[in-house]
Specification:
Two copies of one chain form a homodimer. Chain A is of the alpha/beta class. Chain A is built from 17 helices and 21 strands. The longest helix of chain A is centred in the N-terminal third of the chain and has 27 residues.
């Protein structure tokens, strides 16, 4: 029975009624010991993270990725991991490590793989105010005019927990890697051994669509055998509360290019005769998605699996963040609001989404010329929910594009193709992956919630599915294993954008939570 | 009575029935003499044009423009012009020259101003295959894989007339300036004096919207006093036939920017909750213009003056070019065709147009990130026809944008504005100008047609209005003078785009046509 099937069993509202049970160690004592170690080692932890962030990590640049992988191997081996690279074909390597039996508490009966990714989104220094996104800088707070640089070497410890470390991947996802390793350092200092067998799997192409992940998982199935995977990715809740996450939306990239004349034409001499590719792109995009977020692709939502009662109850229990977010983000409306539906963020991200992530045709501003462009391109990312599949999404999207009167091609069309068809569109898909939701009522799900709640001293939020994508479905489909996500980074980390940052308090909290998971999982 | 009014008098189909009358000189003999001079001086003419093209000439760069103006003063003075710069306020200077009475045939009763512009559109070397657009190169033909560079210095004369000179402004509009001056050189060599008083007016900001042209014309009204203006701009007909043009569409630039969240947001965590500025831009553009060129702005065509019978007859007599153009441009359709209307190019450009000349939001291709962009921008140029005015177009467009539910601002909105309005759009207009059409039945109109036909030995085409914009309405409105356009450059010159070029045969033809106008105007 696949996990997908398990996850659809209705389980009522039990998820919210979970209470702490006895864990392996005294959570309060453990918290005190981990915190004491961290307070004494803050600058070393930030320094180790800075060293990792200084390595460029766009997945398409293999030489950079290899440097990251080698660096991570060293970090794991220094903690006693038996570590090596896992590859499949020409995949960017995953960094793998396991703690030998001697490093784990006797009688540990379960094995858990802890996952993070070390590659990052592309970044343009022009967007970062000219700063190199791979030169980490410690600053006094969130991005803003009053925020100043701090010199780590000369800063007095303890560091101000509101300070933030700025660099590509500070939060997404190198910070969590360092939090996990620091948690192991803290446990070692406290003389506490992990209560589960720990394997670590650090992916190198998550931000590039995890193209090879399934192959790597298949090829190294035995190495990766485990009772559960815990993913260290994504942000904490907008209220800064910790949350345990049971799924994630899937993602697919799509690029659409429409064509005008073979050469740019004077818009006076040929305007409203020669086809305008930007106007065609507008027509096409308007046919795919409305301004209120509504997806107009016929049949697109046919495969959407409804939420269970537990999932609905957990979603409804989330604290309201919408008013504060609208204020912070300076938006006068949200898409759900405008179509007369919900404006609750979590309810909105339980649905599939079509995001226009980029538009390009000729030039705007001072470089604009009075010409009909030769082509226009839109870059799109879809967010999928269970049980949509990339295959079905591709199929329905292309059928819909054809129904709008476009001739779909998958390779750059030659001039003869452009001559013989009225509206040609080049459709290019990135490899994507499906969404997944793990049941909140599995024994391991309850154990994770219990360990986290015990360490925090209060209940964490439970999120049925994260809006952001991590390749949960690949683990579930390939390994048939429960997957739970444990985010630690600040929600306002500018993930995927300029000025990505990690708030130090989130790094400290992450060390404590991972220490709890390493030692407190009992099921 | 203004020229605008004159132009609306119905005159039947007389325009097509015009026949050659006796001009001042024997056209065949003059043609022979001009051609003989040109054949002996081809390399000098191309060399002089190359020298002019080597000067960067984007209107916004005043230092570059000044260098062009100084260079042109020298070129005029070497031909005996009394030349100086005309300015108004901080306008880029117009270069002005007049031939003193001693240089003109005795008894010349009319004065004609010959106009061209010396500034050019911006150009990006990246679009020119890395070549500097201001480093002229002589090549063996139209852009293509078999076209080779030619070294002018070592080329044998006569030059192959199918060769082309490549550079920004080779055709638009420095080539015609050199053609006019070479025509004067040829006349001088033949001992023939111009039959009209010649004034030359070379504008320095036509490609930047002719912002200051009206001021310059007003301030120098007495200097510029004349019986007619002849504009040397625009291309010959697509069949390579010469055409005399009696008007031009107007132009206006518009830039629209829509807003999303104040910072780029992870499209997974916020996708289909936070407003997407690219989707808003798509909605807005789809509300302004359809993919078939139809303008959806309410009342936009209310002020369109119908064509007269002469104008309709002249338009109908234009040779069909559409099939060949579609083949050459590799387009499988044209906008008129798709909406069930005409596919005749000239009929289409008799109407107003809305061209999307650029789109920009975040990035596409390898730089695309899974984020909701903060803003999206479209750059638009309108083409106006008589009697639309820029004021009315602005007014109706903004009213229409508001009717689509957008909050219009004219300065970059602050965050509070973005918080308190659902859909904010920044609307920025370039200064533009109206269209104009001069009657084809004025005495001067007939004289121009006669002189050109005589020199060619066959009737030139007559075009009621050019699709492209030259600031005809500014001359008409400011000086109340008939304005006729005499294009000479090849239609496939990649004007306003990369690889702009001038075919040598067009330069040679231009020299003969201007020699005819200088000596043959008799009314």
């Amino acid at each position: 029975m696949s996990l997908r099937t398990i996850a659809t069993i209705p389980v009522g509202v039990l998820a919210l009624a979970l209470t702490a049970q006895a864990a392996g160690a005294d959570p309060a004592k453990l918290r005190q010991e981990v915190r004491a170690w961290r307070t004494a080692h803050e600058k070393e932890v930030v320094g180790e993270l800075s060293g990792l962030l200084a390595l460029r990590n766009v997945a398409s640049d293999r030489a950079d990725i290899q440097r990251n992988a080698d660096h991570l191997l060293g970090m794991l081996r220094r903690r006693g991991f038996q570590a090596r690279l896992l590859t499949a074909g020409d995949a960017p390597p995953a960094v793998y490590g396991e703690i030998p039996a001697s490093g784990v508490a006797p009688g540990a009966k379960h094995t858990v793989v802890f996952y993070a990714h070390y590659d990052g989104q592309p970044a343009d220094p022009a967007d970062w105010g000219g700063a190199d996104p791979w030169k980490p800088v410690l600053r006094t707070g969130a991005p803003g005019p009053d925020t100043k640089d701090v010199d780590l070497a000369s800063a007095a410890a303890p560091l101000n927990p509101e300070w933030r470390l700025y660099a590509r991947s500070a939060s997404d996802d190198k910070g969590p890697i360092v939090a996990m390793l620091a948690a192991l350092d803290a446990l070692k200092a406290a003389g506490v051994k992990p209560a589960v067998n720990i394997k670590m799997f650090l992916e190198g192409e998550e931000e590039d669509g995890s193209t090879h992940l399934t192959s790597i998982l298949q090829e190294h199935r035995d190495t990766l055998k485990a009772d559960a995977w815990i993913l260290a990715d994504g942000p904490v809740h907008q209220t800064r509360k910790m949350q345990v996450v049971f799924g994630a939306r899937g993602v697919m990239g799509l690029e659409l290019t429409t064509y005008g004349p073979a050469r740019a034409l004077h818009s006076g001499h040929y305007g409203n005769w020669a086809p305008n590719p930007a106007a065609l792109l507008v027509e096409l995009l308007a046919g795919l998605r409305g301004p209120n977020g509504e997806i107009r692709i016929a049949g697109f939502e046919d495969d959407v699996r409804p939420l269970t009662e537990s999932e609905k109850a957990a979603a409804a229990a989330m604290p309201p963040v919408e008013d504060a977010l609208r204020q912070e983000l300076a938006v006068g409306w949200t898409e759900g609001m405008m179509e007369g539906g919900t404006e609750r963020l979590l309810e909105r991200v339980m649905r599939p989404a079509l995001n226009i992530r980029g538009l390009q045709s000729a030039q705007v501003g001072r470089g604009a010329r009075n010409a009909i462009p030769t082509e226009a391109t839109a870059s799109i990312d879809f967010r999928l929910v269970p049980d949509q599949t990339p295959e079905k999404v591709r199929e329905r999207t292309e059928a819909h594009i054809r129904s709008l009167g476009f001739h779909v091609v998958h390779e750059v069309p030659d001039l003869e193709t452009r001559r013989t068809h009225a509206k040609v569109v080049l459709v290019r898909w990135d490899d994507g992956y499906a969404a997944a939701r793990t049941s909140m009522d599995l024994p391991v799900s309850r154990a994770v919630i219990r360990a986290v709640d015990d360490m925090l001293g209060e209940p964490a939020l439970r999120v049925p599915m994260l809006g952001g994508s991590v390749p949960v479905s690949m683990f579930v489909d390939t390994l048939n294993v429960p997957v739970i996500t444990m985010p630690i980074v600040n929600h306002d980390n500018s993930q995927h954008a300029a000025h990505e940052n990690l708030r130090l308090q989130n790094l400290w909290d992450g060390i404590e939570v991972f220490a709890a998971l390493f030692t407190g999982l009992d099921w």
